[in-house]
Amino acid sequence: MRNSSALKYTSFRVKSPSKLLEFIEHALNGVSRSRAKAILQGGGVRVDRKNVRQFDLELAPGQLVEISKRKPKGELQSKFVKIVYEDPQIIVIEKAVGILSMASSHHSFCVKQVLDDYFHRTHQRCTAHVVHRLDRDTSGLLVYAKTMEAEQILEHNWRDIVTDRRYLALVSGQLEQERGTVESWLKDNKAYFTYSSPTDNGGKYAVTHYRVLRTNGRHSLVELKLETGRKNQIRVHMQDLGHPVCGDIKYGNGDDPIGRLALHAFRLHFYHPITGEALRFETGIPKGFQVK
Q: In this structure, which CATH number among 3.40.50.300, 1.20.1200.10, 3.20.20.510, 3.10.290.10 belongs to the domain 10-67?
């Protein structure tokens, strides 16, 4: 656990069902919503002795909420990585565009490095273990293990442990159907370009479900749910539909209204690898993804 001995917490017992942000506002006698969010984001809130930052966390009667207005020393300050949840076994973060999930042969700067530096500064005897990834230009939620036990359980039971993982994408044009499913086999060529085939081409079978949330004719905001987690799956399947992800240099059509790959992992629900607790994390819609 992080060294938070310098923090002074005020304890509150939950009396009725509530979301965490609203609970903080009420507990602190009407503190502003922006201040309540700052306390959460600054690591000043614990629920049942665990540091949390999820503002929409559902609280149940009997739970213990501890609030500190002071910011912990060594708090992670990075424009690329924001901590959403942390306990002794795992850490959930929101990754920004422009950083790898783990180091490659050409780039050493990555989320794992940022987290390992943070663990060192906060005197935690652990390292970040990668259990799944997002492309460098994709933003969103990731979980990293802090122990080998948690890493092994997550890695070997990923499909059973993860109950819901969804993305938001801003895509080019207006889709012909409001919802549907794309199924194909994906295979890389020697240039690492992923090709899609409706029949088995020796590649990996991939399934993507999509639902249009909003459209203005020029662009559409689409929610995507993966049954499989293949490399470049969403980007290639949106290309298959004729409505590629905006800002996609590799599989797109040049449509780039917000100056980035418009793909974001906004939902991650899974069972805790050690405790078995059902954990649910979601982010808001990224800036620029709104369709008006």
A: 3.10.290.10
Task: Please provide the size of the chain in residues.
Answer: 292
Q: Which two tokens stand for residue 258?
A: 């917000």
* Per-residue pLDDT reduced to its tens digit, 219-261: 999 999 998 888 899 999 999 999 999 999 999 999 999 999 9
Q: Rounded to an integer, what distance in angstroms lies between the CA atom of residue 245 and that of residue 234?
A: 8
- Among residues 112, 114, 116, the alpha carbon closest in space to that of 130 is found at 112
Global pTM value: 0.77
Provide the token pair at 158.
């990923």
* Catalytic residue set: 135
How many alpha carbons lie under 13 Å from residue 111 in its C-beta half-sphere? 34
Task: Tell me the one-letter amino acid at 76.
Answer: L
- Which stretches within 216-266 are classed as H helix? 233-240
Topology (CATH) of 81-156? Pseudouridine synthase (3.30.2350)
Q: Classify 189 as helix, strand or coil.
A: coil
Strands of 50-51's sheet in order across: 10-13, 64-67, 45-47, 50-51
